[in-house]
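Example 208, ligand 5-O-phosphono-beta-D-ribofuranosylamine.
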Amino acid sequence: MDARVAVLASGTGTNLQALMDDPVVGPWVVLVLSDRAEAGALERARARGVPAVFVDPAAYPDRASFDRAVLSELRSHDVRFVAMAGFMRILGPELLRAYEGRIINLHPALLPSFPGAHGVRDALAWGVKVTGVTAHLVDEELDHGPIVAQEAVPVLPDDDWDSLAERIHEAEHRMYPKAVRALVEGRLRVEGRVVRVLEEIPGTGART
Ligand code: GRF
């Protein structure tokens, strides 16, 4: 199995940590890439001895050339799969084409509700009683691709952003490694918008 994974992250990297701690996914994480030099995710990667690369958006004249720089890092590390974990940038068409069906993203709401950069805040403001987390394959539209996995999270009467975000993070750390595992083990079957997750690893007969 070739499951070399790059994790793209802009923030503290708790989800990156969950991926690196996963017994299946962890050993395959060969690159952590960030658009922020001070991202905690880069520190977490270094602490594990995983190559940590900062690609500075300010060093590129436009989005397409930033995107090409990211793509060239992925290629130079022989990356096969890309897991986005709090990466606050939209990937461009060239990168999406190169990794079609092999990029997964994590979103802190139950898509298609509350897409965008503020999934937790928007769910609270709307007054929903249940929100959650979504892992989905990435396509050219924001927070839109076929859904791999979801977990519901209740919104409690006294929740504020911090308390809800904490519960959301707990669900993410449970759910996302399983979704990334299914991707790298070749267990996803995509038909239109619908993703079937196989329980058996193709060609091995092994059950997860
Ligand atoms: C997560 O809530 C993820 O859903 C969102 O960004 C956050 C990243 O958190 N896209 P962390 O850096 O993994 O702690």
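Summary: The chain has a mean pLDDT of 97.
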